Amino acid sequence: MRSVDASLLCFGHYGYTRDARKALDLALSQLDLWMSVARKHAGEPEGAFEEKTREELLATDPGIALFGDLPDDVRTREHWHLIHSIAGFRPHLAQQ
Questions:
Q1: H-helix or E-strand spanning residue 9
Q2: CA angle, corner 87, sides to 82 and 90, nearest 5?
Q3: Which residues share a beta bridge with 17?
Q4: Backbone φ/ψ region at 25: left (φ over 0), alpha (ψ -120 to 50), beta
Q5: What is the pLDDT of residues 4-17, one digit of tens each?
Q6: DSSP assignment of 19-86, as one string?
Q7: Among 91, 37, 25, which residue's Cα sits nearest to residue 61?
Q8: Taking the model in full, what pTM does it have?
Q9: 79 vs 88: CA distance, rounded Å
């Protein structure tokens, strides 16, 4: 996607940006961070892997730095999404 000279990037669930390259660079940087953190905890059993990865990401990922400031109901909902996003790394790590 980064090789396409696009001036507009539309997101599947919300909005758009006119700085497509910056958005893709940020996403790639975040993905690299998440993969690095997930690899560190890959040997943990299910449940512990997700929680340890979540804790470290909350401490190191500027993209989710304000997670703790969310209202309780939103934080509860987003915790579910965060844990399931992290769990999605497990099958990929198992193939390595």
A1: strand 9-10
A2: 150
A3: 9
A4: alpha
A5: 888 899 988 889 99
A6: -HHHHHHHHHHHHHHHHHHHHHTTTSPTTHHHHHHHHHHHHH-GGGTTGGGS-HHHHHHHHHHHHHHH
A7: 37
A8: 0.86
A9: 14
